[in-house]
Structures are given as C-alpha cells and as structure tokens.
Amino acid sequence: MSEYKKTALVLGAGGFIGSHMVKRLRSEGYWVRGVDLKYPEFSATEANEFVQGDLRDADFVRRVIQFKGYQGNFFNEVPYRLIEPFDEIYQFAADMGGAGFVFTGENDAEIMQNSVTINLNVLEQQRLLNRTFDGEKKEWTEANRPKLDWQTKIFYSGSACMYPEHNQVDKDDPNCREDSAYPAAPDSEYGWEKLFSERLYLAYNRNHGIPVRIARYHNIFGPKGTWTGGREKAPAAICRKVAYADTLDTIEVWGDGEQTRSFLYIDECIEATRTMMKGDFIGPVNIGSEEMVTINQLVDITARVANKAIQKEHIDGPLGVRGRNSDNTLIKDKLGWTYEQPLEVGIRRTYNWIMGEIAKDLYPVESDKDITGKPYLAYGNCAK
Q1: Which residues are catalytic?
Q2: What does the alpha-carbon distance between residue 233 and residue 281 come to, in Å, rounded to a whole number?
Q3: Which of 13, 101, 367, 377 could disulfide-pair with 18, CB 3.0 to 4.6 Å?
C-alpha cells in the first residue's frame, strides 16, 4: 500500500504558480513530478521528482506523462505493465509575462508558437497513452494493456486576457462574464492563444473523452513570483519600485494610471484551482478577485504598506485594456468558491517578500538536489 494518496504531474513547476501548486499537492499527500525548463527561482522544489526538459518536444512529453511507480523515475526503464497515467496533470507551462512583455507586439509569434505547441503535445500524447490503456493498437508500446476505469484529469490555466477588448472599454464597468467571450476579440496575440488553447482542451474532451478543467486566471500575484527583469506583473513591479524609493520620491506609472484591474493572491488561486479539480465542472470559469482598483490606487496601497509618501509620474507604456475585473458569479454557483483576502493583505505579504529579496542583494542560488537529497534530473539540452 502506497503512502501517497494520488499522483500528479505539474508542468511549469519551475514557475510562480506551478511551484506553489507543487507545494500544495505535497501537503495533501500527492506524489508529484515537476517539469520545467528551469528550477524554481526563489526556493528549492518540493516535488518528489523534478525533470528539466522542453515541453515543445513531443517525445519528451510522451515520456514525461508516464508514471513509473513511486520508486521509479523519469529515466528508469521499467516493464511496460508497470507504467500508468498520472491521476492529475496541471498545465501551467506557457510563454508569458506582464504588460511589458505581452503587449509590445515584439514577442507575439514566440508566445503563440511556444504555448500552442506545448498544449497540443500534452493533449495528443495523453490521448495516445489513453489509447494504450484502452487496449487499442498502440503506436509506441509493445503489449496490450487492460482498460482502466479512470483517466487522467488535466487542468489548463487560461487567462482573462482572452476576453474581448470591446467589453473592457469602460474602466468602471468591464464585462468579464464567461459567456461574454464571443464574438471573440482579444486585445493581444497572447489572449488569442489562450482562447484557442482552451478551445483545444474542450475539443479533446469532446472528441476523445479526456477529462479537463479550464480556468481563466485574473492577475495572480504573491511571493516567489517574478519581480524584476521585464516579465513581472503590476503588483510586483509596483512593489519593487516603491521598495527602492525613498519617501516623497516619484515612481513611473504607465498611462494615466486610471486603468482598472483586479488581482488575486496566489494562495487563493491555488485553493480555487484545487476546488475545481475536485469537482465535476469543466469550465471555463474565472478565478480571480472582484476587488477592482485603478493602477493609481494600487500604487497608493503599496505606498501605505511601505509607510512611504510616493509621487507618480505618468509616462507612455503598454497598457492593455482600459478595464478588467473578474466576475465570480459562475464559480460561486458551480463550485461554491469565493476569494476572501483583501488586496492590501496580499500586497503587504508580497512587498515584504520583495524587500527581503532586495536585502539579499543577490539572486537565490539553485540547489542541485531535491528535497529527498537526490540530484535533479536533466533531459535534452536544457541547462540549469
């Protein structure tokens, strides 16, 4: 009898949300394999096994979705009869970033190609693995397997960036209900890719019976997320600017600062995602906060947390839509979930964490071992 309750594969486990999900799943008694091009930047992974590799490589994905037993690992050769699908897959891997990366137009082709390729690989290789377990003729195995009475459930992390631009012109009353997605008109190629990918997951569910869950995340933030370098999102960027500033200093704000957004703290995002995976509702569904603020107000909240008087200089920069706010009517109805934490509480925790990172005056050193003391596994030409 295994000590583990279930198995999970977390794709994008080196990233912000993925690393938090690994920690949560381990706390719930899961055996977890994490996969990413890189290790988590700000802490050691808590995955039972962490494999570096490129999810754009279909053969790598084929191998990484196979669970080889609790004592096995990615490189072990085991009898095929011992290979099983994972109970759950969490697909967070994507080419993404904040407005400074997504809305310039300079990264559109890269964003679309990378993310779509990853999602197609995950779904298609899972379909082939399911065919194997359905006892049909196999394309990359040697022996028939009995049909299982369950299939891997796949969570896909979509984005509110897929909502139509024309529904987000009024900064005080944007429409981000799930049923407002069509006629489609996202304001960025990143949003178009997210919309296409969620339709891809729905198609594989409809045509191949793969159980999926699809969420539209709204501006997730918190400790251990990117906070410098150009891919950080607004809360982290503003926390960084305020942290470096002295009282009465001026920080730069893109546009007039009156564009509106809502921001959800990472712990609540993880809780909502786990609630969705435990339920029967496929989605798509919003996962976000309904506490909408202007960017100017976000600066004021951060300054209050820091106990500093901060001035704002409004400059040109990529802005995205004029207004965006999560509508949580559907998730409350279908899953009974609602956010609880005020924005200021999350900003305080994030600001304090970034202050700690600044105080170190260096970036965290990556460990070459996982929490069991075993060396991390590498695949292909991906380097630490």
Answers
A1: 190
A2: 29
A3: 13
Find the domain containing 112 and state its range.
7-221+264-288+326-340+367-378
Distance CA 317, CA 241 (A): 16
What does pTM read for this prediction? Answer: 0.88
User: Closest Cα partner for 303 from 373, 262, 247?
Assistant: 247
pLDDT tops 90 at residue 123: yes
Q: Establish if 239 belongs to a structural domain.
A: no
Q: In this structure, what token pair is assigned to residue 103?
A: 């809305």
